[in-house]
Amino acid sequence: MTMISSASQVQLLQFFIRKLKCRNILEIGTYMGYGAFGMADVMAQGGKVTGIDIEPHFCDFVNKTARERNINVEVKQGSAITVLESLAKEGNKYDFIYVDCHKPDYCEYFKIIMNNGMLLPDGMMVCDNVLWHGRSIKRSDYFAECMDDFNTMVAADPRVTTTLLPCYDGLLLIQHNDNGE
């Protein structure tokens, strides 16, 4: 299993970012920065991609590359939950959030983001791997159970509306409901 997004997956994210004219982008699970740099390529002028990754060497690599190439990408090192809570306390808001990180924590990421108003009203959140190789529906292993729990929790949340794209390993698109909740 590879941890890097495919070129076509990054192109899909770029499509959404262009269409929504996103300026403030959050990537939870930056890894080597391929997705972050791809999103930065098409974000609105003056925008910024903020990434989160637990591995210091990946953070250092991406931050160094961004500085050298004058790309507005910054990766914060640490547990995604801890960094998200810090970003929420600082009042950070995002019009695009991409989640591709530690699968057992997806429910907690969603709660922190939604309960702290981190997703702007016209924004979109995209969560990767929600089908977990087709096993999430059968709940056939621990990660499949985590993804099924996440999908069920988000589907039941009246604040959002979702669409599941059965491409790649399942992309869940999340946006605020139009009913003002």
Summarize the structure.
The chain is α/β, with parallel strands linked by helices and 181 residues long. The protein contains 6 helices and 7 strands. Helix 1 runs parallel beside helix 2.
Structural overview:
- This protein is about 40% helix and about 25% strand.
- With about 180 residues, the chain is of the alpha/beta class.
- The protein has one domain (about 10-130, about 160-175): Vaccinia Virus protein VP39 (Rossmann fold, 3-Layer(aba) Sandwich), CATH 3.40.50.
- The chain has a 7-stranded mixed beta sheet with strand order 3-2-1-4-5-7-6, with helices on both faces.
- Helix 3 (about 55-70) links the parallel strand 2 (about 50-55) and strand 3 (about 75).
- Helix 4 (about 80-90) packs parallel to helix 5 (about 105-115).
- The longest helix has 15 residues, at about 140-155.
- The chain is globular.
- It starts with 6 loop residues before the first helix and ends in a 5-residue tail after the last strand.
- The model has no long low-confidence stretch (mean pLDDT about 95).
